[in-house]
Amino acid sequence: MALAGAGLTSGCVRQLESTVSRDERTPFSLSIKTVPADTDATATRLARYLATRLQTVGVAATVVPMSREELLRDVLSNHDFDIYVSRLLLRRDPDFLRPLLHSRYGPGRGWQNPFGYGDLSLDSLLERQRTETGSVRAATLAEIQRRVVEAQPFTPVAAPRPAQATRPVRVDWPDGVGIHSLTGYLGARAVTTTATASRTESAVTSSSTPAPTSTSATTSTSATTSTPATTTDEPAPENELRMTIGDSRPTENLNPLSTPFRSDGTLLDLVYDSLGRPVYDRMRPWMAASWEWADGDETTLSVRLRDDLAWHDGEPITAADVAFTFRFISDTALGSLDQPVPSPRYRGRASLVESVDAASDREVTIRFGDVSEPAAARALTIPVLPAHVWEPFARPTSVSWLDGGTVTEALVRNNLEPVGSGPLRVTGTTARESVSMEPFEDHFLADDALDGRLSRFDGGFSFDSLRFDVVPSDGAAVELLATDAVDATANSLSADSRAAAADEPGISVRTSRPEWCYHVGYNHRRPPFMNPRFRRAVARLVDREFLVDSVFDGETEPASSPLVATTYVPAGDAWDEAVSELEFVGDSGTGTLDAERARSVFEDAGYAYSGDGDLLIQE
Description:
Largest sheet: 6 strands, mixed
Low-confidence stretches: 1-20, 194-233
Radius of gyration: 26 Å
Number of domains: 2
Helix content: 25-40%
Strand content: 15-25%
Oligomer: single chain
Number of helices: 20
Mean pLDDT: 87
Shape: globular
CATH superfamily of the largest domain: Periplasmic binding protein-like II
């Protein structure tokens, strides 16, 4: 009996110690960073939705709103976050997943693995897919997606269809492309009507936005230091295409290498050309007159530039500028430091290339590594930069907002007077108000002798000028459109604003295929986010069907894969089973969470709860 009593006492002590140890552990708390509601109401609603569900399962979650610039700096440069909710720009070629998830890019900045995720087996698959084509590549990409679903390095939520509003009586937009795109602007044509004659008066009386004046380019590390522009009462040009944008960052920074200031590169696509462009879903020579792979060598591409190419400042473009660009993208310090300082924005694409040499003034030889032709094409979309403008900015510098690491002036300069070679050149910026452009008369599109699919752009941009005015909200954009103060919205409208625009006479709403995916990002550098079981438990709090109907008003599709906008999303039982294992823990489609089941999912992942129902941090 003594022995039995001693054993019972020992067991009770162990149980008591376990209970005390559990209750002394710290309840888990986290922050969800995102942008404010007036910047992106959808992102804010998603963040609040997730915070509420986390609170229901015992996690002290708070939403931390911040400007787009601050969010991207924290996530992409300083890696200072627990969870964030934002947009992920989707690419047509799935090779964008390689820099996004490969462990090699974890220590870097930009959209090169901002999560700090590492999986050597996934690394191998990501490297392999860029060497493959056809069904072989599709099979590898299917396995990559299955592993991404299984490990949840980040959680895709939904890919909305961008919706822009326009006045068809004013502008005829090309079919099959989005309004706010390179091909959209280059294919737009003015519609001549009796109302056209009154445009100048309408622009003056209906719009309160002042016309811009040029601001000076600067090497300052803060875009907000640009010289304020003065206002003028001069009317807008009669043949001006007037657009609204909801993002003021392009008015403060036009540096194509800047990550915090870039979420949409359309404006800079108009200013900076590349060797090739994806036009109507096919990569076509752009600055290049032609290219061809060397006989018997599928890793060497010979590129011939178009004749008489020129920069916006009148200097001629040569093959040396192309070679400089690829070297500069790979190391913006140009070898002056012990370690290269690559451009975070284009590092993944530049990594496809081994060398670029100027064979002559018009001929470039590009040597790729073990890369298939579809993947190699991504490198041809890097914007070509003028060496005489950018080389002086290869100096190292420091910025107050960067926690450690080295940057160069090239990565942080404002570049408010950009010298590109694109079909439009910038004529003026007013900080937080507007950007104005005009056609570049020496651009090759200005000719009327283009061949093939580019012939639809004969003559170049058809308007005398293009102006982007910053609006505080989607509702404000619709109001300006309704009063004929603008011709279309570049910013994609929310569901409510889309409905309001559709109710206005003379306004048409156009949607296009998904360009970005809302997602939940996890910082794998911090516990417990390096644990895939924890991430999977969080992912199961997301009811995509409910969010599609309630947040996106049905104008989207649920996204379980980051390749949702491509044809590579797999089908079949294996894929369905992988997705079903992350099904919402509750009544799907209603948003009603089964709190008890959800808590058990976290417990199955190895986490414990306090007596008060708080999820505890594992020591």
